[in-house]
Design brief:
By secondary structure, this protein is of the alpha+beta class. The chain has one domain: Chloramphenicol acetyltransferase-like domain (Chloramphenicol Acetyltransferase). It contains 8 helices and 9 strands.
Length: 270
């Protein structure tokens, strides 16, 4: 979080922000299999103690910690041809809201929370949304859907031009260039899907969208023995104007480490 603007805006990044467009030609993809056999024990223990967490909660918090400790470069977005570092690490988590409708909740300063605090915050956000108090991204979606076609397309293009392309914010209209936070994470495994890759929404400035696939048992080598383990695939769609392959590697390595040491999520980050 202390990197200077000059360190972010290398020659390559200045060139990349010019030659690529978002999201049409700047997407790169990556995936990794995550062994959650031991992590499931951690989740089960938490739930027995009355803390209702799921795999989605854990992974969302781990990614927030990764942005803080391993890859702060990911907590950035393009504004007028430059890479801008965000002032906070905010998670956008896809959840089931009301009437079987998928929505999202935004968790501000996700990296600073413990696992218990993160779970309580998400629960509170879901309750607010079900009562009609939705975040700016959800409000914008409902507003846009109410506009008849073709005016809907024109309005969206104006919104994207002013907020995403030009970087302006209009707080009195709940329009911002940073409505979706630092990253988006969604669990499609709950829908029965093994794996998948998400879109980088043209209306967002996130550098990465992560997808949690369905967990299943798979033979793995542990201590030179083949044993059944619980595995899921974590997939990522990344904005190549902000992210390089090396950043993705750092991210996945940190995630694997934290999955093996989930008790670290119960501690406040240093």
């Amino acid at each position: 979080m202390t990197n200077s603007s000059q360190e972010f805006n290398t020659d390559w990044r200045k060139v990349a922000s010019t030659i690529y467009r978002k999201p049409r030609d700047s997407k790169i993809y990556g995936s990794v299999d995550i062994d959650i056999t031991n992590l499931e024990k951690y989740i089960a223990t938490k739930r027995k103690n009355g803390i209702k967490i799921t795999l989605t909660h854990v992974m969302a918090l781990i990614v927030g910690r990764a942005f803080r400790e391993a890859v702060p470069e990911l907590n950035a977005y393009i504004k007028r041809g430059r890479v801008i570092q965000r002032k906070s690490i905010d998670a956008m988590v896809s959840v089931l809201l009301k009437k079987d409708e998928m929505g999202s909740v935004k968790i501000e300063n996700a990296d600073q929370l413990t696992m218990t605090e993160f779970a309580e915050t998400i629960l509170g956000k879901i309750r607010q949304s079900r009562l009609g108090d939705e975040n700016n991204a959800m409000q914008s979606k409902h507003m846009l859907s109410s506009v008849p076609w073709p005016f809907r397309s024109w309005l969206f293009n104006l919104y994207k031009l002013f907020t995403i392309d030009w970087g302006f914010s209009f707080p009195w209209l709940n329009l911002s260039s940073d409505s979706f936070g630092s990253y988006v994470i969604s669990n499609i495994g709950t829908l029965g899907l093994d794996t998948g890759y998400a879109a980088l929404l043209p209306s967002s400035n996130v550098s990465i969208v992560l997808i949690i696939g369905k967990d299943y048992k798979k033979p793995a080598v542990v201590n030179d023995e083949i044993v059944p383990r619980k595995i899921f695939t974590l997939s990522a769609t990344l904005d190549h104007r902000v992210v390089d392959g090396s950043h993705g590697g750092k991210l996945f390595r940190f995630i694997k480490y934290m999955v093996k040491n989930p008790e670290l999520l119960d501690q406040k980050p240093g």
